Amino acid sequence: MTTQTIGLRESKKRETRQAISDHATRLFIEHGFDRTTIADIAAASRVAKMTVTNYFPRKEDLALDHHEEFTAGPARAVTARLPGESALTALRRDFLDAARRHDPVIGFSGLPFARMITGSPTLVARLRELHELREDALAAVLAAETGAAPDDVIPRAAAVQLVGALRVLFREVLNRTLDGESPEEIAPAVAARAVTVFGLLEPALGDYATRPAGQR
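Structure for TetR family transcriptional regulator, as requested:
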């Protein structure tokens, strides 16, 4: 099998996955998440039900299709922090960059999508679970980056506070979207809130997990 053949196959898989996700989102918005079935999505996408579940093992993942980036994002931001930069500073910078981009991962989803999420108890519960998973991922990275002992509670405590800040800001974006504000209105407002929220953590975590100068 040639490299070109593999590339075409992977491209086709990405196209199929995106098509399924797009059809699912449309159906969820039109009919509601809980009333839309996998069979409905498969029919709209013109694929078998098994194909849908192969790409998206959980129905919730069709609605929250950025879930992998969502859960891993804070940990990646800390791992990639600059020399002299603390975990808090890296996460604040990463959030502000995402706000300028109107990144859907931090909640920029549009009014119909925001209504769809908040209108489904299943999705609200899944979103809560994803916040906990990103906390786990961040705690593991903080422990590794600081050389913490297995029984050291500090990485977990820091992760809870940092992810808590991100959780508050995610809800802020969602609430403003539900109130009818545009992304252009939300971005500067939530950026100002981010400065405030992360500032509250500065006394305790401002220097925590600071990358030594000269280290990459």
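The longest helix spans residues 3-31.
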